[in-house]
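Customer ticket, subject: "Can you confirm the structure for Aldo/keto reductase?"

Message body: Hello, I'm evaluating your service for our small team and ran a test protein. I'd like someone to confirm that this is what the system normally returns, since I don't have a reference to compare against.
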Amino acid sequence: MSKSFTLNNGIEIPSIGYGTFRSQEGQDLAANTKLAIKEGYRSIDTAFIYKNETSVGQGIREAIEEGIVTREELFITTKVWNDGLSFDETLQAYDDSLKRLGLDYVDLYLIHWPGQDDHYIEVWKALEKIYAEGRVKAIGVCNFHVRHLENLLSQTTVIPAINQIELSPKLTQVTVRKYCENHSIRVEAWSPLMNGELLDNDVLTSIAKQYNKTAAQIILRWDIQSGIVTIPKSMTPSRIAENLNIFDFELSAEHMATIDALNEDFHYGSNPEVFNFGK
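Agent reply: Thanks for trying us out. I re-ran your input and got the following:
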C-alpha cells in the first residue's frame, strides 16, 4: 500500500499525517510535532481555530534546522475559519497563518466549515487566487456535504483537491465519499479514532488480535485501504509511533467489510448540517 496518494492537480499527499486538533499551544506540542517528523510523519495538520499554529510551526522549523527533514519533504496543512470573512480578509488570514507558522507557504489550505449559508463561495475565490499565484500547492475544503460541494462547483473554477471530513468506522460517510470519488476530490478523515472512543470496540479489538496490531492501527489501515487520507492525533510519544506502523500488513476483504458494517452515521463532532460557527 502506497504511503501517499495523488491529488487531482498531481500533487502527492502522505496517506497518514499527524493531527493537532485539541492540542494546546506550548512546548509539549512543539516537541511532539518534531517527534512525529522524526518518527517518519511527513504530513502535519493544523488550523487557525486550533490556536496552536505557532507551536506546530516551531516543531516543524526545529526539525528542519536539525536536519531531520527538509521543508520540501513535508506536507503542511492549515485552515481558514470561515465565519464571515471577506475576500480580502481571507487573503490576510492566509498571510497571518504563515506568520504564526513561520513558513513561506503551506502545501494545503482548507476552508474549515461551510456554515449555514453560501458565504464560503467568496472565501473559496480568495483561495483560488492564492493557488493561482503559486503561494500554496493545493486548496480544499472541510466538512462539506454533497449539497455544499455541488454549490461550490457550480460557482467556482478550481475543484477542491481535498474534502476533510469526520470519518470513522461509526461514521463512514458513504454518500459524500462517492460524490468526491466521482469528482476526483480526495477524502481525508479527521477524528478517525473518534477521540479514542473506538479503541475498546469489541469488533475492532478482535480483528486487531488476528494481525497482532492495535485497534487504532486497524482503523488507520482501513482508512488507507479505502483510499482515505487519515490524520490521527496523539500527544503520547508511543502512540505517535504506533499510529504510523501500519504499512506492514493488509486487511482482508472480509475484515474491510466487517469494519464498513460498523457504521451508525454517528457524528462524534459537530454535524455540518447544523454547525454555524457558534452563532
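A couple of notes from the result: Residues 4-260 form a domain with the TIM Barrel fold (CATH 3.20.20.100). The mean pLDDT is 97. Feel free to reply with more questions.
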